[in-house]
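Researcher: Quick one. two chains, 730 residues in total.
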Amino acid sequence: MRGAVLLGAALLAGCIQPIDEAHSRSDHASAHKTYEGSYPIKATATVGMVADIVRKIGGDRVVVDCLMGPGVDPHRYKTTPGDVRRLRDADVIFFSGLHLEGKMSEVLHRLGAYKPTLAVAEAIDPSRLFREEEGAPDPHVWFDVSLWRQAAEGVSAKLCEFDPPHAAEYRANLAAYVLKMDELHRYAKTTMAEIPKERRVLVTAHDAFRYFGNAYGIEVRGIQGISTDDEAGVKHVNDLVSFLIERKVKAVFVETSVSDRNLRAVLQGCEARGWKVELGPELYSDALGDDGTEEGTYLGMVRHNVDAIAKALR
Amino acid sequence: VNESFWAFNTQVAAAAVGLLGAGCGLIGVFTLLRRRALIGDVVAHAALPGLCLAFIVVGSRSLPALLLGAFLTGLLGVATASLLSRTTRLKEDAVLGIVLSVYFGVGVVLDSLIQGRFKSASQSGLDSFLLGKTAGILLEDVYIIGLGAAACLGIVLLLYKEWRLLTFDPAFGAALGFPIARLELLLLGMAAAMVVIGLPAVGVVMMAALIILPAAAARFWTNRLEIMTVVSAAFGGGVGLVGVLASAIFDDLPAGPTIVLIGAALFLVSMLFAPERGMIAVLRRQRRGEWKLRRRVLLLRLFESVNPKSPTDPVVLANAPRVEFWPLWQFERVLAECARLGLVTIPAEGKVALTAEGIADAERLHRAERLWNALLDERPESAAVHAVFDLNEWEDELDPETRRSLEARIAAERRP
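Model:
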């Protein structure tokens, strides 16, 4: 695995080196200059959540290429030479940041030196981020729609700065989109509130739903840590079994981009102690659903999660 | 001990990894002694492309299909290795290195291809085979692993005599008419099966340790194959159990690495402290041998320097031979030990005398030394055979005829 990552990083380094040098004297001029080419602007995004908001705000002016498709786990994603080409060909790059794109993060940040690049989650007010004790923020910010709204505003600002002639269009798109986001935010709040308070517990394969829990008032537990790279200890599984039984939780949730092995072990543990827990419907955590479906958009994906959780726990 | 210790998932994981360790320990004995210890590593790495291919073909995360794919490419990797080492001039280490990394590389490439093209790729947990998910072991896994371990035990019991031959003298076994090639294939097949079965639990990287460590640790405790087999299986099972229980008791202790670390600790303890074959025992034996040799050298040199007519007369210590550049402290210690054993006395400060016992010892050694030198002169080619034996006893190994001729030679030397 490491080998592939290193290879990818080496390829990428090889590609960007000459450009990097050429522009180092002009104070990374290209990273800040405005767009002069033909339309539509070619944007490359890493994950679906980012690609979708860029599409919504860019409208017809921007065509978005998304590196990680449905069901792909960004924490463990391995950069391929094809990705390098797609990043190189982009006019502007959007990624989530906060170390969500685990193995790709470093190269993405380095690309920022000579290409217009935005880590959208890093445009969010830092005081609203959850931090681990070591200080690394939890990257799964899109589950609090009011936070992802800030990311959308960041995308709009970046596009306005990059392509000033069409700034009015981007601002109008943003305004329309933000209305839908606010509506979804309210919907999620009221729907979660309908679940009886003591059963309002969300158990998933990895710790992706802390922002969701905080924004919509539901307690959150994951088997693996914030990154899917963490391996769970046996004690952690046992603790979770005890917790589920104690709180009489009726369902746990599989994520579309994470293996469900650990969750199934937890279910067997509950069953052995006489408490039947159901495997709830699939949730979208770090990736969107298939293109062309409702879950293939950011708003549709959040709505799906909210409805699925409410239905299984009510 | 807390409640996590007795929880259902702890029992499942402990049973699974304990059985896995015991089975691997059994098989590991034969692969280790047959000098195929790295086979586990080759299979584990070569299994990765099989996992990916099976996923591409089946298109889902059915565990039996994935394991079958892993088993097939694992065996293919082993076959490639044996083909390469038989048909080329490459040595085993180079061959294994090539096979291991090439297959693993193919696996990584396939894994990268899959991640973009198949929707359920991340969910399939192909990545989790690299390090394993011990905490996520299910009841079904226990049955599979138990079956594998039982098969190992059955085959070892049934074919013990045959595998013993395969391990120690395959050429002799072939001469007796045993199908050695097929027996070896069966051994490698069983090893591959155990590795593949264990992949979901402990992963590619650590699987090799589970095959090698118990057998390698058991090797220090015994020279007998039966005992080593039992000890290795017990070690493997114990390591798995303790690793899982540790992960159940302490927070944030992933089971896979813990198991390997416990195995390594067991190996280290065995290597250092095992009686007879342990490092400390071997070193102590060596040092004892060195001091014994020094005592003899001192005795011999004293014997040569005393008055032959009354050998028990004291010699002035200053005139006593300081042998072979020994430092003073060593000389004094050797002297003190000889005195303690009653071979010499120290009648007065600065004097030393041989006792009757010391003289008898020295005479015997003297004769042995002369016999040895005669043998070196007369039949240097046969000296190597005797060199491994103690200088005290080597002459008993001589056949009577050689002995007579050597004694005649010594007698002839003495005359002039």
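Residues 1-30 of chain A have pLDDT under 50 and may be disordered.
Researcher: Thanks, that's what I needed.
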